[in-house]
Amino acid sequence: MASKRHKHACVCMIINSAFLENDSNLEDHEVGLLSQLQMHTSMCSALMTLIPQRRIRIPRALNYVEEIIPKYTEEDFRRRFRMSPGTFSSLLTIFLEFKEKTIIPMEKQLLIFKRYLTTQMTIQAIADQFGVCEYTVFDILKRLANIVCRELLQQCIKWPDGEKVSNIVKGYKDLKNFPAVIGAIDGSHIPIKTPNHCPENYINRKSFPSVILQAVCDSKMHLLDVNCGWPGSVHDSRVFKNSELYQRIQKDPEGMFPNNTHLLGDSAYGLEMWMMTPYRDRGNLTQSQYQYNYIHSSTRMVIERTFGAIKGRFRRLKFVDIQDIEKIVKVVISCCVLHEFCLQHDDDCVEYIEEGGEDEVNNFVQILCVNNAAGEKRDSIARML
User: Fold this and answer.
1) What is the pLDDT of residues 117-128, one digit of tens each?
2) pTM exceeds 0.85
């Protein structure tokens, strides 16, 4: 209130000084047009400061969902939402079952959700495009991410059992003839905005903040397990040993890896009966060990392709502009679930692999002692290959 009174007093002084200046000038009869113009300009500027400014209405697109999207061809829709119309319809059917009590139709909400995950558009730009306010977009992202993580995660991403194990083993063997593989495991860094809490923990070896996404996939890039949230500075082995997957393996290794099957992991992981890793090259490897490492690396490359496909389809993972780790994890897991949903509905992801390609960030080497039984198993595989 005091500032308003001060503002009003200043305006009055400007106006009074202008009139006094005008009176003196009239007495001298030497006022030119330029000085009169300056006087009136200062008066108008002063008076305008007293007029309350109205908030400018932000222009937004109208009827984008109702009128524009229906005109898209199948390719147009896929290029913009990174999903075929058929897959989107199947996903929409699932979301409609949850009967969210909102004014905005679920179709529009799901399109907004997809647009956010598949682009690097700002919340403001998405709000303008879909004709809603920014708060509405935030609310939609929060609710739909919760639904995906709470309801769809366990339906879409499952550890294999029964006949699925046999199919996965066959799929991997068909790649490079590596036997008894049930999955390939690795970690990938998701760039994020530096968190407020313990920011130094999230800086990885490439000096940017990230969280780690750990995933296991089969030979066709289907996800079998995902884990996300550990800071970027953490070793892949530590992430794995603190994951729910590792705890399940410790409780029932034979149930998780029937018929002496195993995972393929890089040198960051420890060699176990259920985890085959490469030989450490100190310049003394035999020909069979070199051959083993080559086939192991070529076979395990499918997990790198999977990360590329996920990041290529869901470009939000190129950089998640969020500081809240819990929200970041939900965004990342949502992308993983929708990747798997697309594959289960024959919505191919090969075209996105190159776009989502990434450089190696953590190049850790496991230095723990080798498990003797696991070492013998690896040697046996090397001789066979």
Assistant:
1) 999 999 999 999
2) no
